[in-house]
Structure formats: C-alpha cells, structure tokens
Amino acid sequence: MARWSAAVGHPIARRSAGVVHRTFSVVGEPDGSTRAEDAMEFRHLESFLALADELHFGRAAARLHLTQPSLSQQLQRLERGLGVELVARTSHEVRLTAAGHVFRRQARLIVAQLEKAAHSTREAAAGRAGTVNVGYNFPAGQHVLPAVLARMNAEYPGVTVALWERRTGPQLAALAEGELDVALVYGHPVSSRFRFRRLLRVPMVAVVGQGHEWAGRSAVSFAELAHHPCVLFAREQCPAMYDAILGAAEQSGITLNVSQVVDDPGATAIVVSVHPLVGFASETRGTSVGSVSGGVRPVPVRLTDPVPAVELYAVWRATEPSPLGETFLRCLDEVPSLPGPSDGPAEPPVRVT
C-alpha cells in the first residue's frame, strides 16, 4: 500500500504539496500585512528539511529533483514568510541558525503529523481503521459476535467495534439513521433500503417465576398458554419475534391472554419472577438468565407443538456502504460456521437482498 513518507525527498511527499498548498499560518510584515507570494507551502518545508539534512545546496537540490536556484528561491520565500533567517550561507559553509534549528524540529513534527493523518485516513477509507458500530441482540452476542470479533482483532487490529445491545426495532431505526453500520436482528426488513444475510435459527421458550406451576416442567405444549396470562411486548420492538409468538398461538388454535406489555427483556424477567405470568424469550436468553446465581432467576420452559422460532439476520444499508461495515461483514462471512442454540450450523454465508 502506498504511504506518505516522512523523508523529505520522497516522491509521494512532493506530490502532497498541492494538497496542503497554503494551509499553514503566515507571519506577515511588521505592519501586520502579509504577502501572498510569501505564503508558506508544504514544498517549502520539504526544501528546508532537505537543506537542513544535507547542509549543501547542490545535494539538497538533487535530492528534491530541483535546480539550485529554485531551492534558493523557496528558502528565501520561507524566510520572508517567517520573518527570520533560517540558514546562514557563505561561499564556504551552509549552517542552520538558532532559529533554523528550532524550526527544523517543528517542521519535522508537521511532516510526521501529516503523514499520520494521511495514513489514518487511507486506513479508514479501506476499512482497516476506525470504529464500526454494530447493533446486536442477546443470541447474537452469545453465538455470533465472539467468533467475528476474534477474527476482526486478528486481521484488523486497527478497527474498534462499538457494540450496542438493542431490540430489532430500535436497531433498524438506528441503522437507517446511520448510527449503526450493521444490525444483528430477528427477521429481515422488507424495505429496499436494506440488505441482509441469514445467520441462525433461534428457538423460543417460555419464562416463568420459580413459584409458577410450570417451573418444575421441562416442556409444555403451546396450547396450554390459553389458560395462563402472559406478558408480551409491543410489536414494533421486535416484529419477527412477536409474529412468531402469535403465529404459534394461531396454529395452536388459541388466543393469548396478554396481561402486561413490557418492552425490556430484563424487565420481563423481573415481572414473571414476582407475578404468576408467562413471558417469552429466546432459548439463549432463557437458559442464561435461569442459570444466574442470586438475584432474579426466572425458569425457562421449553415450548412444543409448535416450537416458536425466529431467524437471526445481519442487516446493513443497501446504499452508502460503510467501509468498516464491509470489513465486519467480510469477517462474518469468513467464520466457518455459527452454531445456533439448538439448531446446528447456519446456512452457507451467502448475502441476499
């Protein structure tokens, strides 16, 4: 990969002069005015640093592929712009003045900082540096992110992955607004604004408090929910999960008795722990919260006939692709398999629209 060089005579550094042309502060005339022809340019720094290294006009000019008169002219313009003498020259000697030594240190810092800025910018544009914002839900955090983040860390150590745990609706809203680069959500959006890839199939379970009559059972048929009040969430929070639950109820020939609407999964766990209600969670979350020692410990109960399930997808914007988002998706594609909670490996990594 082409990079900017800190070496003054590097051809890439010479070409950079037009990019940063006239961007440095100018010290003007004693009366406060400035001369446009004396404005400091990046090539003036290059010329000065080459001369400071060589202390010889001929060698410095050759290093810069300039004529000696051109080099002298650039130095004179630089000195006029600064209002100080940087180089003392006689017929026998070229040396830096005290001001020249100070300016040499500062000029090198400017060149180094510009090199760093150019390198960082190119790395970010290529998806090799910067921060990628990824939304996720609980199963994605357990079954997808560990392998992807390990690959990202190994192959793209300059990229920071900022993780945001949210439900599907808030994730897709943030993705549309550009706040997220990739969303790991239940179900795929139907809007042409997004593209997606299926990752996993995630079964769902019922969650109840330890005093609930289902707490000692390993499984219940979905139809039994007809006789138990439940706690659900607003559909816009997670449409795919909501539809999977109501679809299973319709398939079972029952109507759910929704006693409370709670949009936060953690709050659902608390509610079912203190009230005789039935909540719903992914098998991953239900098993995890049920194994926590101390505090709230709802009990997961497997649902059968039918088993409600949702598909986990990676979703990204169809337009204005983010280079860092592409890097994350590339690492996601390269993970050999993503085993789900109880469903085995996912489909082959093929992106679809």
Describe the structure.
By secondary structure, this protein is of the alpha/beta class. The chain is 39% helix and 20% strand. It is built from twelve helices and twelve strands. It has helices at 11-15, 42-54, 57-64, 68-82, 98-125, 138-143, 145-155, 168-176, 239-252, 265-274, 283-290, 323-334, and strands spanning 87-89, 94-96, 130-136, 159-165, 182-186, 194-208, 219-221, 230-232, 258-261, 279-282, 299-304, 309-317. The longest helix is centred in the N-terminal third of the chain and has 28 residues, at 98-125.
Task: Summarize the helices and strands and which ones pair or pack.
Layout: H1 11-15, H2 42-54, H3 57-64, H4 68-82, E1 87-89, E2 94-96, H5 98-125, E3 130-136, H6 138-143, H7 145-155, E4 159-165, H8 168-176, E5 182-186, E6 194-208, E7 219-221, E8 230-232, H9 239-252, E9 258-261, H10 265-274, E10 279-282, H11 283-290, E11 299-304, E12 309-317, H12 323-334
Parallel strand pairs: 3-4, 3-5, 7-11, 8-9
Antiparallel strand pairs: 1-2, 5-12, 6-10, 6-11, 6-12
Helix pairs in contact: 2-3, 2-4, 2-5, 3-4, 7-12
